[in-house]
Amino acid sequence: MDKMTRGAGAAAAGNAFTDSFLERLDHRDESVPGSDEATFAGDWQVRREKSRFLLLRDFEQVGEDVPPCWFTQIGRANLAVAALAAAARDPLFEFGQETRMGHFPIVLLDGGDHPAVVGESRLFHDSFLAYLHAMEILARNPRAFAHVGLAMGGDALRIAGRILNGGIEDDPKS
Questions:
Q1: Tell me, what's the pLDDT at 7?
Q2: CA nearest 73: which of 49, 53, 55, 44?
Q3: Taken in order 62, 66, 42, 49, is the CA torsion positive or negative?
Q4: Contact, 69 vs 52, CB < 8 A?
Q5: Do residues 47 and 62 lie in contact, with contact meaning Cβ atoms separated by under 8 Å?
Q6: CA–centroid distance for 83 within its chain
Q7: Quick one: angle between helices 74-87 and 142-151, nearest 10?
Q8: Count of CB atoms within 10 A of residue 81's CB?
Q9: Is 150 in contact with 78 (CB distance < 8 Å)?
Q10: pLDDT for position 1
Q11: What are the 10-residue block averages of pLDDT along the chain, 174 residues in total?
C-alpha cells in the first residue's frame, strides 16, 4: 500500500506518524538548539552490503534506509560510529578569556548552568577543543569506545591491553 492509497491519516510504512505529518516535518525549521543531536544520536551499527560497510541505527534496515555514510573498510566504519557519538553532542569545551600569562582556560560546559574551568592551555586552536570533545565522549561512552577497539588491529589491541593493565592498580586501597 503506497502513500496515495493509505490516505492522509494513515501511518507511513515503518513509522507511527502519518505521511502528512512527516511531510510537514520536512518543511519545519530545524534551527532549534540540540536539533542536530537527534540526527546523529542512535545506537549505530556497522552493516555489510556487498563491498561496503554502512552505518545504520539498530532499527534501520539495509536496502530500506539511507545510511549517513558508508566505507570500504570495516575499521573506518567503526571509527565513524565513535565519531557520530561525539557529533551527537553539543561541544563540551570552550576556551575562556586569555589570562595575563597568555594562557587560555579550558572550560567544561557539559550542559550545566555552571561551566567549570578544568584546565588551561597555551595553545588556542579550535580543533584542539574538538578533539578533546571527541576523547571525552569516548571516555564516557563505552559503546563508542568499543567501536574504536573494533577498528584497531590485533597488535594495537595487545599494546593497549598492556597499557591498560599497567595503568590499573590491583588494589587501589593499598
A1: 47
A2: 53
A3: positive
A4: no
A5: yes
A6: 5
A7: 160
A8: 21
A9: yes
A10: 37
A11: 44 70 74 62 89 93 92 96 89 93 93 86 93 93 91 88 79 58
Phi, psi of 54 (to 5 degrees): -95, 150
What pLDDT score does 83 carry? Answer: 93
Task: State the Cα–Cα distance between residues 61 and 11, nearest whole angstrom.
Answer: 19
For residue 76, report the phi and psi dihedrals to the nearest 5 degrees: -70, -35
Question: Hey, which residues does 84 pair with through a beta bridge?
Answer: none
Instruction: Give the 3-state DSSP-derived string for the chain, with helices as H, strands as E and coil as C.
Output: CCHHHHCCCCECCCCCCEHHHHHHHHCCCCCCCCHHHHHHCCCEEEEEECCEEEEEECCCCCCCCCCCCEECCHHHHHHHHHHHHHHCCCCCEEECCCCCCCCEEEEECCCCCCCEEEEEECCCCHHHHHHHHHHHHHHHCHHHHHHHHHHCCHHHHHHHHHHHHHHCCCCCCC
Q: Exposure string (b/e) for 139-155, b if CB count within 10 Å is 16 or more?
A: eebeebeebbebbeeee
- For the question of whether the overall pTM of this predicted structure is more than 0.70, the answer is yes
